[in-house]
Amino acid sequence: MKAGIAAFALALVALQETGSTHGSVTLLAAPDEETGSTRGLRPYLDKLDTRYDFAICGEPTDLDVYLGNRGVISMDVRIEGVAGHAGIPQSAVNPLPALGDLLLEVARLDARQGERRPLVPTVVRGGEVFNQIPGEAMLTLGQRLMPGDDPDRAETVIEDLVAVVSRRYPRCHFTIQTHVKWPPCLLDSSNPYALRLLETIRQGRPDASFGFDDPADDASWLMAKGIPTVLCGPGDPGQAHAADERHVCSSQRLRVLRREPLRLSSLWIAGDGSMLST
């Protein structure tokens, strides 16, 4: 994203240097896109009084043009037991076996749903010391969604799975909280702005193509407001959130990036209306 913001800023400079007054461009740098954009992009869109014809999210796509992204539902499952001494297990209710059972059921459901709709455990908590049975365990799940999927239906499937496991452990109390419900999105490949952007990038990188982003991105919120949106920016998408996350720019990509600001500005001059870059 940082490289994408830099490219957008340079594009604005190049556009200003052309002296064009054709349409308008907004650059929005939102700091909370990883957590649902509840304090950045989404409040901005809710108060919006400008109609944007097109938007570009600067996610790392290796300069391919992604037409959409998956959605995600993130849920916390809490399992309450009764804390006690590990040497006297009969005096406690251990929530960890229930947590282990739930993880197994999650893995089975994930296998049934296929690789395009993974159900991924991301956080597990329970217990602090070897001689105490914990009173609570917690599991965070992320369910990925494809365009056309119903987020409410996916949420219900997980709730039903938790209910099945909870009936096996009547002495434990299960609660579920959904804290992120992020819709998927997909732009039609015939969109003229997306086609022009791809054509522009191919002038410097002939193998550029349309694609699709597996993570959930801000394009979802823009598309939900009726703004045609793509994702496009420098950087290897496979590096996102990696322990050694970095941007490695080949000589070919560097040449494209050096020319990209002027090309992005020429893309805009050829259009009409307003564009938003995030």
Summarize the structure in words.
By secondary structure, the chain is α/β, with parallel strands linked by helices. It has two domains: 2-70 and 184-277, Zn peptidases (Aminopeptidase, 3-Layer(aba) Sandwich), CATH 3.40.630.10; 71-182, Alpha-Beta Plaits (2-Layer Sandwich). Helix content is 34%, strand content 24%. It is built from seven helices and 13 strands. A four-stranded parallel beta sheet has the order 1-13-2-12. Helix 1 (2-18) crosses helix 7 (251-269).
Instruction: Give the CATH class of the largest domain.
Output: Alpha Beta
Question: What's the arrangement of strands in the largest beta sheet?
Answer: 1-13-2-12
> How many beta-strand elements?
13
Q: Helix-strand pattern, N to C?
A: HEHEEEEHEEEHEEHEHEHE
**Low-pLDDT runs:** 265-273
- Under the CATH scheme, the architecture of the largest domain is 3-Layer(aba) Sandwich
Main sheet, how many strands, which sense, barrel?
A: 4 strands, parallel
Classified in CATH, the superfamily of the largest domain is Zn peptidases
* Strand content bin: 15-25%
Structural class: alpha/beta
What is the typical, i.e. mean, pLDDT? 87
Q: List the domain count as a whole number.
A: 2
What Rg do the Cα atoms give? 23 Å
Number of helices: 7
Helical residue percent band? 25-40%
CATH topology of the largest domain: Aminopeptidase
Tell me, briefly, the overall form. Answer: elongated
